[in-house]
What we know:
By secondary structure, this protein is α+β, with helices and mostly antiparallel strands. The protein has helices at 2-13, 17-20, 24-39, 42-48, 56-73, 98-107, and strands at 79-89, 111-122, 129-141, 144-147. 44% of the residues lie in helices and 26% in strands. Strand 3 (129-141) and strand 4 (144-147) form a beta hairpin. The N and C termini lie far apart (51 Å). 25% of the residues are buried.
Amino acid sequence: xxxxxxxxxxxxxxxxxxxxxxxxxxxxxxxxxxxxxxxxxxxxxxxxxxxxxxxxxxxxxxxxxxxxxxxxxxxxxxxxxxxxxxxxxxxxxxxxxxxxxxxxxxxxxxxxxxxxxxxxxxxxxxxxxxxxxxxxxxxxxxxxxxxxxxxx
Length: 152
């Protein structure tokens, strides 16, 4: 009779990936990523992106590359940008996901969050309506969340 109760107590006290990690900031910053790309917003980019050794020209070139992908080359813009879900990787450095493991080893974090997004656009090649889905990736360092990719 006590075994189910003991199991419930154990489950309730065990930290689960999604239950213990507040993903409010990564979700909000993923929405901001669309604004960064749309408006080529360097100031906003520098607020949420992982600090790296780059000058403003290098940052702007990176933002321009993603802007061109979303507005010039592949798609005709970012419309109806929505958050679809969240994946949490708590032990990123030992994750079975190679992408997570490599980024954790590169940046030194142990918690990574992927915020799934989607937006509507027009495919420039086919001129047909298109929905592009992807994820914004965030690393938790100390008490701060940093974006480690920009929509691609």
